[in-house]
C-alpha cells in the first residue's frame, strides 16, 4: 500500500481481525467503542502509523498501536505484524472469568429436561416397579 492512499479506521480494524465484518467495525466506531488517543473516531477517519486505539468488542478490550497499514484481510499470523497489542493482562483475561458466571439463557448439556432415551429408561423403570408391586 502506498503512503498517499488513505485507509479508513473500520477497514483497518477489519483487516487486522479485531472485528469479523467491516460493518461491525463501522458500527463500533459509530457507537463510540473505538477511541483514538482517548477521543471517539468516525469509521471514515484515516489511519496512520503510530495511532493508538482503544477498542471495546463483545469479547474483550483492546489497546493497540498501529505499526503498519493493511487494507486487505489476511491470516491472523500475518495480521498481528501490523499492530502492537498493548492491552493490560487484566483486560485480556477478564472475559474468561465473566463467561463462566454469566447466564446466557442456554441450558448446559446433560442438565435439565431428560432426553428421549432418559425418559424411556424412567418409564421402563417405573413400569417395572408397578409389575413387582402387583405380584
Describe the structure.
The structure is a single chain. The protein is of the alpha+beta class. It has a domain at 9-90: Structural Genomics Hypothetical 15.5 Kd Protein In mrcA-pckA Intergenic Region, Chain A. It is 39% helix and 14% strand. The N and C termini lie far apart (87 Å). The model has no long low-confidence stretch (mean pLDDT 80).
Keywords for this entry:
single chain; 135 residues; alpha+beta; Structural Genomics Hypothetical 15.5 Kd Protein In mrcA-pckA Intergenic Region, Chain A; five-stranded antiparallel beta sheet; 5 helices; 5 strands; 14% strand; elongated; ribosomal large subunit binding
Question: Quick recap of the structure?
Answer:
Strands 2-1-3-4-5 form a 5-stranded antiparallel beta sheet. Helix 1 packs across helix 2 (22-30).
Sequence-ordered SSE layout with sheet pairings:
Blueprint: H1 9-15, H2 22-30, E1 34-36, E2 39-40, E3 52-56, E4 61-66, H3 76-79, E5 83-85, H4 89-101, H5 116-134
Antiparallel strand pairs: 1-2, 1-3, 3-4, 4-5
